[in-house]
Design goal:
This protein has two domains: about 5-120, Rossmann fold; about 130-280 and about 315-330, Dihydrodipicolinate Reductase, domain 2, CATH 3.30.360. The chain is about 35% helix and about 25% strand. It is built from nine helices and 15 strands. Bound molecules: nicotinamide-adenine-dinucleotide.
């Protein structure tokens, strides 16, 4: 069986990470790398020593010339719709970076194109391929019983420079989707409604709202609360945040770095049982896991994590949180479609 042929779109820092990840997959061959600024591709091919990978600045020409089995879209969010639509309309499967598209309307259109063309479209939510997150999910499912509250705190103080500093809602639009998607994954539930407020503290170096608090009502009756800031110096959390699940049989914590741990109700002898979850099994870490899952799904004609019908629900959480923040009202979600 010959390796699957991939075309990569986007040669920014994340595109480079994907180029190296694709090279590391034994069943995939990167045949072409496309960027509007082709010099970035040429430089990337040289510096990463990718050998005979073709460089192009025209996606449609590259699709015709190289007939790939799939495209990995790591372009800017504003180009995700254009790139993915072009591929799906030619029945070329797509593994795209988050967010699925710049708006929910564009994302809905891509889901329809995936259906119409009967072509797989998956969004890589690389945090789902984190041994700690998977282990935390296992702890919730196996030990804790009915979930009441799921909380995450995300507090960091990065100075990115560039587009994030100029966005209206940098935290909600560029970062919170990781936690929102993880909450759906951990709880096995989808949100029904959200109340959200954004703020930009006086000391913030961002133009738009760098901090947010959101409360989601989930369809299993539990609530998921998110508290985050990108201008919170001191006692920073991990990039995965710091989680607490409160459930019928006890509570569990995961700080994003060490093993998740649960404290369970006193047993017959009156003592509290502590359960520490070891690293879970994953197809690979981060984007390597996304790629491995996607390739296996293509080979076996099955549905992987992040398939567009499911992933749009995470984008819908961002969209509804933004609407709530702007209107000051609780917003109902319409299951993402
Ligand atoms: N999952 C994560 O942890 C994570 C981390 C960083 C970035 N990302 C995502 O990865 C994507 C890229 O991020 P980045 O930081 O590399 O961005 P970037 O802006 O540095 O690079 C994007 C590249 O895409 C190219 N491009 C834009 N439109 C194009 C088009 N229509 N056709 C071909 N090329 C096009 C640009 O010229 C640029 O070189 C974004 O969607 C971002 O949200 C995800």
């Amino acid at each position: 069986m010959s390796a699957l042929r991939a075309v990569l779109v986007g040669a920014g820092p994340m595109g480079r990470a994907w180029a190296e990840t694709i090279r590391g997959h034994p069943d995939v061959r990167l045949v072409c790398w496309v960027d509007l600024v082709v010099d970035r591709v040429v430089q990337g091919v040289q510096e990463l020593r990718l050998g005979d990978v073709a460089a192009d600045d025209d996606l449609l020409a590259a699709l015709d010339r190289h007939a790939p089995d799939f495209v990995v879209d790591v372009s800017v969010p504003g180009a995700h719709h254009e790139v993915t639509a072009a591929c799906l309309d030619r029945r070329v499967a797509v593994l795209g970076e988050k967010p699925m598209a710049a708006t929910l309307e564009e994302a809905r259109d891509l889901v329809e194109r995936s259906e119409r063309s009967v072509t797989l479209f998956v969004v890589s939510q690389n945090r789902r391929y984190n041994q700690g997150l998977v282990a935390f999910r296992g702890l919730l499912a196996e030990e804790l019983g009915e979930l009441g509250q799921l909380n995450v705190e995300f507090y960091r103080a990065p100075h990115f420079g560039g587009f994030r500093d100029e966005m209206d809602s940098p935290l909600l639009v560029d970062m919170a989707i990781h936690a929102f998607d993880a909450a759906r994954y951990l709880s096995g539930s989808d949100p029904l409604s959200v109340s959200c407020s954004e703020l930009n503290p006086p000391w913030s170096w961002y133009r738009g709202a760098a901090s947010a608090v959101a409360d989601f009502e989930l369809d299993n009756g539990a609530h998921f609360s998110y508290q985050g800031s990108w201008c919170a110096a001191g006692h920073e959390t991990s990039w995965d945040g710091s989680w607490r699940a409160v459930a019928a049989r006890g509570s569990a914590l995961w700080d994003g770095t060490t093993d998740p741990v649960a404290e369970l109700l006193p047993g017959d002898d009156g003592s509290t049982r502590t359960v520490r979850a070891g690293p879970a099994s994953i197809p690979g870490p981060g984007i390597a896991g996304s790629l491995a899952d996607f390739v296996d799904a293509l080979r076996k004609d099955r549905t992987p994590m992040g398939e567009c019908h499911d992933n749009i629900k995470s984008l819908a959480m961002v969209s509804a949180a933004l609407e709530s923040s702007r209107t000051g009202r609780r917003v109902r979600l319409d299951s993402g479609r």
